[in-house]
Amino acid sequence: MSRIVRNVLVVAVAVLGLGLxxxxxxxxxxxxxxxxxxxxxxxxxxxxxxxxxxxxxxRGSDRVCTGKRGSTHGTFDMSAxxxxxDSVKIDIEMHTGLAGExxxxxxxxxxxxxxxxxxxxxxAGKFQCDxxxxxxxxxxxxxxxxxVNTNPKKSVANLLNLMAWLxxxxxxxxxxxxxxxxxxxxRRGAMEERTEYTRSIxxxxxxxxxxxxxxxxxxxxxxxx
Length: 225
Fold this sequence. Notes:
Elements (H helix, E strand, L loop, with lengths): L1 H20 L8 E13 L1 E8 H4 L8 E2 L9 E8 L5 E8 L6 E8 L5 E7 L4 E4 L5 E3 L17 H34 L5 H19 L1 H11 L1
Helix pairs in contact: 3-4
């Protein structure tokens, strides 16, 4: 009997040792379900839910995404694998343009939230969960003020100088032509046309005066802009 008892004890100790050496059973993953109210979102969006369990996935995606959606999808549920004690985060992508432009807010902590609302218009969207701390506002993009290109070449000044030179050349040519024509008429004794040529000279001087005001006027605009 002592040998039988000894054999039984040896078998029991071996089974107990194998049980102690065996790895602990993995904790079964549950699901974290979030209800999303997006009927008031006047834009296209994509939501991606992730937990510590999904982010440890070595083969698949580290998050569960909805795909591109809009206000017509209304209220829906999205779920992701979850282990008790996990932190829960969500990535929000607002699609703002036809060419694929988007605005994103990643890693928004919504741990403990069970209901979230997505609303607003493009660049003014709002994501809010049933916990006030989980609120994200999308701000409009910053539009830089338009400034005149003040490069070292001073292309605008060069253009004004060129136009002023052309106007001066045209004015000189006009005076020479008018003066020559008037002299020819006086030599022939056609004095009755002198009023017309005098008017032509006045027109040339007026054109020169208007042209010379272009440069100061443009500089005044630049100073008062």
